[in-house]
Design brief:
By secondary structure, this protein is mostly helical. The chain is built from two helices and no strands. It is flat, with a radius of gyration of 20 Å.
Amino acid sequence: MISKENIKYCIFIAFISILIYKAIDAPMKFISGISGFISFFSPFLLGILFSLLINPMMMFFEKI
Protein backbone atom coordinates (compact mmCIF):
# COMPACT_ATOMS: atom_id res chain seq x y z
CA MET A 1 0.00 0.00 0.00
CA ILE A 2 1.27 3.45 -0.88
CA SER A 3 1.32 5.85 2.03
CA LYS A 4 1.23 9.64 1.90
CA GLU A 5 4.87 9.75 2.91
CA ASN A 6 5.87 7.50 0.00
CA ILE A 7 3.88 9.66 -2.43
CA LYS A 8 5.67 12.81 -1.16
CA TYR A 9 9.01 11.05 -1.57
CA CYS A 10 8.19 9.95 -5.13
CA ILE A 11 7.06 13.47 -6.10
CA PHE A 12 10.24 14.92 -4.60
CA ILE A 13 12.42 12.45 -6.54
CA ALA A 14 10.52 13.20 -9.77
CA PHE A 15 10.94 16.97 -9.24
CA ILE A 16 14.70 16.64 -8.62
CA SER A 17 15.03 14.36 -11.66
CA ILE A 18 13.27 16.90 -13.90
CA LEU A 19 15.52 19.70 -12.59
CA ILE A 20 18.65 17.65 -13.29
CA TYR A 21 17.37 16.77 -16.78
CA LYS A 22 16.64 20.42 -17.59
CA ALA A 23 20.08 21.46 -16.28
CA ILE A 24 21.79 18.91 -18.52
CA ASP A 25 19.53 19.47 -21.55
CA ALA A 26 19.78 23.27 -21.74
CA PRO A 27 22.32 24.57 -19.22
CA MET A 28 22.15 28.22 -20.31
CA LYS A 29 18.35 28.35 -19.92
CA PHE A 30 18.65 26.66 -16.54
CA ILE A 31 21.31 29.13 -15.36
CA SER A 32 19.29 32.11 -16.59
CA GLY A 33 16.24 30.72 -14.80
CA ILE A 34 18.18 30.43 -11.55
CA SER A 35 19.51 33.93 -12.10
CA GLY A 36 15.98 35.27 -12.53
CA PHE A 37 14.84 33.42 -9.41
CA ILE A 38 17.70 34.88 -7.38
CA SER A 39 17.16 38.39 -8.71
CA PHE A 40 13.47 38.16 -7.75
CA PHE A 41 14.19 37.07 -4.18
CA SER A 42 17.27 39.24 -3.59
CA PRO A 43 15.34 42.08 -1.83
CA PHE A 44 13.81 39.56 0.56
CA LEU A 45 17.17 37.94 1.23
CA LEU A 46 18.77 41.34 1.85
CA GLY A 47 15.97 42.22 4.28
CA ILE A 48 16.52 38.99 6.19
CA LEU A 49 20.27 39.60 6.26
CA PHE A 50 19.86 43.17 7.55
CA SER A 51 17.42 42.06 10.24
CA LEU A 52 19.81 39.34 11.40
CA LEU A 53 22.70 41.81 11.53
CA ILE A 54 20.77 44.57 13.31
CA ASN A 55 19.01 42.31 15.84
CA PRO A 56 21.99 41.96 18.28
CA MET A 57 22.47 45.73 18.30
CA MET A 58 18.77 46.28 19.01
CA MET A 59 18.85 43.69 21.81
CA PHE A 60 21.75 45.62 23.37
CA PHE A 61 19.90 48.95 23.17
CA GLU A 62 16.72 47.43 24.60
CA LYS A 63 18.62 46.31 27.72
CA ILE A 64 19.84 49.87 28.37
